[in-house]
Amino acid sequence: MTGSCKESLWKTSLPRSSVLYACVFINTVFIAVMILRHDVRDILTVGIKQQRVDYTRIPGNTEMHSTSKKVKSEKHIIILAGKRTGSSFLGEILNQNTKVMYMFEPLFHFTEKVLKGDMNPDIFDAESVELVDSIFKCDFNNSRFMTRLHPLFCSTSNALSKSALCGKHKVPTDDIVVENFTNVCRTYLYKALKTIRIYDIELLRSLAVDPALNLKIIHLVRDPRGIMNSRENLNSKNLDFERKDVEWDEVTDLCKDIKKNLNIVSTSASWLKGRYMRIRYEDVAKHPHSKAEDIYDFIGLEMPTEVKQWISENTNQTKGNQFSRSRNSSVVATKWRNEMPFSDILSIQKKCSISMALLGYKEVKSPTDLNEETNVLGPLPDYLS
């Protein structure tokens, strides 16, 4: 380049020193351009190579997706509910989807540890949120209780039940469970769990604002009269109420939590917009197909045929125990009207009047009001558009 530069410029009338300076400048620019072109080419080449080799296969789909696309497409769903609100049934609407990895009550062992004195109750909430975050990110190493979760997940999660560890009689070590479940978890874009052990929706703020999670919160509620009737029929202790160790009774505790969460949602929770859906058990029980469609629309997924079929087969059952996910759902929803002593109904209404009104549940004044379902169930108010 230097020789051709001099030959070209010497043919002009420019002084010799000017020719030399001009050639130096031209050569410098030429070298800079070549370096820049070389760097850009290398950067593009590296990026193309990374895109070509870094893939994740999606279950139930033969299409290959790049990791960058996977991060943007991932969805995480948490069903937030209370004991005896119908959360097990609602969870099955996600569990029956072959593209969703669903986990049933992963926090149950924390309750056991608190009651046994092996965990400080003051750290229950923080530990619970940390575990949920770890599960959603397939980081099972953060759980020190995998051998306890192993049989639970194997028996309740359609996705994890296919693991090589499930069905074996010998209990594997934590390390083996962690490795196995991690490998399964990483093949799913969509992960869901349900819990009755997180009482304060504010605890989910850190998860909701984490862009890596793309979190959707389904808040399941139920008439307090129906909840307490179902709990009474169990004839067993509410261990999570005992864990909380509060000064008031169980009914008051239930409705205090309902009121607190509805207040958060309706007044100051801008971080929930687009991430939160409230749904009543009674509406799911009466219209399971349409409400399931609403849930899938909210999540941003198409409801598959296998879920529709499962709903049809499991909402008209006449048999089933108290923990069954198969029910005659329209009958079960408000059967408390025929089972609960009227004095108990009036007591619950007195303690829960505000919470009931916020959720569209009507108070009754006399036993004859219980004859018609419309006397106890009104429309669900919309507090969060």
Describe this structure in words.
The chain crosses the membrane at residues 18-36. InterPro entries: Gal/GlcNAc/GalNAc_ST, P-loop_NTPase, Sulfotransferase_dom. This is Carbohydrate sulfotransferase 1-like. There is one protein chain. With 385 residues, this protein is an alpha/beta fold. The protein has 2 domains: 2-53, no CATH class; 65-138 and 186-375, P-loop containing nucleotide triphosphate hydrolases (Rossmann fold, 3-Layer(aba) Sandwich). The chain is built from 18 helices and 7 strands. Strands 4-5-3-6-7 form a 5-stranded parallel sheet. Strands 1-2 form a two-stranded antiparallel ribbon. A hairpin with a 6-residue loop joins strand 1 (55-57) and strand 2. Helix 1 runs antiparallel to helix 2 (16-53). The chain is globular and about 60 Å long. The N and C termini lie far apart (68 Å). The model is unreliable at 6-11 and 29-71 (pLDDT under 50).
Structural features:
single chain, 385 residues, alpha/beta, Rossmann fold, five-stranded parallel sheet, 18 helices, globular
